[in-house]
Amino acid sequence: MAENIYDEIEIEDMTYDPALEIYHYPCPCGDRFEIGIADLRDGEYIAVCPSCSLMIRVVYEIDSLPLLEQLPNKVAEDTAAEVAAAEP
């Protein structure tokens, strides 16, 4: 897998799309690397391009991700519902 890592990109250099809840970055093939915020919160750090085999390693700290309060209301409501459902 390491041979397909195209580059390491700081999360600050990526674009965040709050509607899709993904970070993206231009790929040399003309498409874009994508990684979901949920994946980042789960510790994933590899963004993939859906059009080619390239991947990038996303350099970030969990504290740099948008807070739940900063996400669209639907996401915050869904997350709150999941937390409430998990409580005994």
Structure in a nutshell:
This protein is an alpha+beta fold. Helices cover 22% and strands 31% of the residues.
Q: CATH topology, what is it called?
A: Microbial ribonuclease fold
CATH superfamily: DPH Zinc finger
Radius of gyration: 15 Å
Count of folded domains: 1
CATH class: Alpha Beta
Encode the helix/strand succession as letters: EEEEHEEH
Which structural class do the helices and strands define?
A: alpha+beta
Tally of DSSP β-strands: 6
**What portion of residues belong to β-strands?**
25-35%
Number of helices: 2
Gross morphology is globular
Strand order of the largest sheet: 1-6-5
Rounded mean pLDDT is 81
Major sheet details: 3 strands, mixed
CATH architecture: Roll
Q: What level of helicity do the residues show?
A: 10-25%
Walk me through what this model shows.
This protein has a single domain (2-63), classed as DPH Zinc finger (Microbial ribonuclease fold, Roll), CATH 3.10.660.10. It is globular. The mean pLDDT is 81. Helix content is 22%, strand content 31%. The chain is built from two helices and six strands, in the order E-E-E-E-H-E-E-H. A three-stranded mixed beta sheet has the order 1-6-5, with no helix packed on it. The protein has a three-stranded antiparallel beta sheet with strand order 2-3-4. It has helices at 37-41, 73-86; strands at residues 5-10, 15-17, 22-26, 32-36, 46-48, 55-59. A hairpin with a 5-residue loop joins strand 3 and strand 4 (32-36). It has 88 residues and is an alpha+beta fold. InterPro entries: DPH3/4-like (IPR044248), DPH_MB_dom (IPR007872), DPH_MB_sf (IPR036671). It catalyses: [3Fe-4S](1+)-[protein] + Fe(2+)-[Dph3] = [3Fe-4S](0)-[protein] + Fe(3+)-[Dph3]; 2 [3Fe-4S](0)-[protein] + 2 Fe(2+)-[Dph3] + NADH = 2 [4Fe-4S](1+)-[protein] + 2 [Dph3] + NAD(+) + H(+). Residues 5-61 form the DPH-type MB domain.
